[in-house]
Amino acid sequence: MSKRKLPRKSRAGAVLVLVAVALIPLIACVALAIDLGMLLAARTQVADAADAAAMAGARALNGVSTTSNNYSAVLPTAQAVANLNSVLGATVSTSQVSVNIGRYTYNTSTQQFEGQFPGPSTENYSLVQATVSVPVSAQLAFAKIFNFSAPNIQATATAVHRPRDVAIILDFSGSMRFASLSGGMWDGTNYSTNSPDTVVPDFGHYSGQSSRMVATSFTTPYDAANTTATTSDGRPPIVTDFYQDTNGTVAWTAAPSSYATTPAGDAPLKSNYNGGASYAQTVGQLLNINNPGNSTYNLLFETLGYTNAGGNLLAAGYTQGPAYWGKTFFLWPPNPINDWRKVYFTYPSSATGMDDNSKLWDSSGNWRTPGNSTYAINYTAILNFIKNIGPSVFPNSLCSGRMQYYSSIPSSITLNGTYPTDLNQRFWKDYIDYCLGVVDNGGQNYQVISNGSTGLTGFGPDFTWGTVKITAKSSLSGSPKPYMHYADNPKRPITKFWFGPESMVDFLGNFNLGYTTDDGRFFWWPGTCHESPMYACKLGIRAALTDIQTNHPNDSVSLIFFSTPQTSSSDANSRFNRVRVPLGRSYQNMLDSLWYPPATVLGSTTTVSPYDAANNEVPRAWGGTCYVYPLMLAYNQFSGNTGLQTYNSTYAKGDAGGNGRKGAQKLIIFETDGAPNTSAQANLVNSGAYNSYYQVRYNSASPGSSDFPYNVWGYSDLSSSVTTQITSMCKQLVAADTASPPGYSNGNKLVKIHCIGFGPVFSPSSSTASAATSFLNQMQTIGNVTDGMPSYKIIYGTQSTVVSNLQTAFQKIMADGIQVTLIQ
After folding, report:
1. CA angle 705, 710, 713 (to 5 degrees)
2. Quick one: DSSP state of residue 8?
3. How far is the C-alpha of 672 from the C-alpha of 630, rounded, in Å?
4. Over the stretch 292-310, which tens digit does the pLDDT of each residue have?
5. pTM to 2 decimals?
6. Which positions ≥6 away from 334 have C-beta within 8 Å?
7. Longest alpha-carbon distance in the chain
């Protein structure tokens, strides 16, 4: 018989034991999950702190080499920013942050940028690697229950200054000095004056003629010329920009303003033996002789001269004007006992003094050209007048802006050959010719530049004062014959015949004659003078370059000037075929190049002469407005072609290009004060990406072997023949580096072209402002800049306003895009 099983008894609390046993690993899993989440959160927070520290540390770096690029500020800056972060609620401490400072350097072999620690000393520090290491065990809620100690959470981030290759292109065309043209228009006769200087002669034929010498209104782009006076907007006078030595001793001081009405030396006489109310225009008026004839002869006047006519007891032989006018020997009528005609001019090939008015002036009273049938200039006598008669108005030497104009005033001039070989003699001959209203084109081949119809000098043509009459000596009669016809009266000069600072400054900077002569003369102002608006532009660019050096340590910058490029090595009237400073960080050279000739910046020459070939390269305003040529130079600067680097070995490496860095974004800043009017063409050598170049390479050691542009022609402003070239060049620059021929845009690193409209041409009152601005905007649009030319890119106004606004424009342009970025 089977046994019946008894029912089991329930075990109270058994499940609870099982739950309790299972709860321990369950809690451990939950604790692990929570702590793992916290660890993940901590890792993210540490990484954020490292990123912030690296970015802040990189931004602390600058381009100032004297402070090692602000090296010492990197760690405290990175730590301070990291301290603003917290990890699991605990603030990141200073001790938890470390940095490694290096350079983001371009490897020319691999054509890539590499982070190097510390990197080559020739480069700026531009990279910061920040490491943040934070202990988190104390913040883990459960790990410590299980006696688990978590390692420190660590993150490393690397930030760099993003590299850019920057081409700064500056307009040095002639319009950059239009506000300093004292003689009226730039393109021909100076019909009037732009000078606001009210201290002018008011005696003799100048009385009542202030409108010929003092301007009261101006037409854009001209303005009140700051040649001899400070303008109402604060532009200093150019006459004070010249020195008698390298110590900066000013060359000239102004004569008393009272000389405007009462000159020193000989004063023009009034009618009726100097007792009349008005100045005498002729001998007849001086001696109160009505209708004098060919034989009229006054014995006392002819033998005693001005003394008998109420003048000085002893004739001084000079008249000194006010302010900077200097002195002149021209006084009409001439004193018969000290006749300046006979002293300073002779019959051709003779020592006999000139006493025939018809040889000096034509029948219309116009000054004539020296020659075999007219007269010869007595340079020795004029030099003696300059040096020894009356006050000395010239220093023994004259220099400015590392240019030596003359080192002595000669006593005579040798006229053998085309030009005097002694540069002092040549300079003074050119100046004397200029003051007499003529120019020598070589070998005493003279040309009149100032008479009654031509006024290429000073304040314009000679003018009619009274009844013009010129009589040949051969037609005079009587026994004895009079020294001249008593009714003779030539047209009267304005600044002609004056020897002094005013005519010297006009001579050194005459705009019209630079295109008249065949050797580039008369564009001789130094790069340091206050020509306007150029000077203000240079001040603004100087400030901008300092900002770039300070704030953008990984940018390479090239400085390019433009006007009309040369088409051959013998083309003396054009310049700037090579960049001023090649792509790199030669900021001091850039600053010096704004003011001084390149031969004095990078070469061994201390000064240059006006007659040196280097004079063409002095950074002054001159020439046409050719946009396309400097854009070609920029293309070559961006190229990495190593053959370009040494093409022009006379100057710095990369002068002809080749210093471009693949992977660096390309940026062009294009400043101009006018509309383009000059074309230029050159062939593009397609050697592939970052290796191509335009054939505009300049070889300073052998200029004749250089690559010159062709089809360089002048057109009207914004002619389609010019603008089509420019837009095509812009498109070539911004083309992809995979295009054929290649440009320099790569992925998101697009070439950018920023434009700045500078000067009175872009002021609202200018009729050309709208069209000129529109074309600059067209260039920008092609160049991946779509800001529509905002107001900060249109710069005009007073000198202080222009300088400040130009600096602001550069700062905003340089801030375009990402400056500092994480690469790790």
Report:
1. 135
2. P
3. 12
4. 999 999 999 999 898 877 7
5. 0.90
6. 340, 341, 483, 484
7. 192
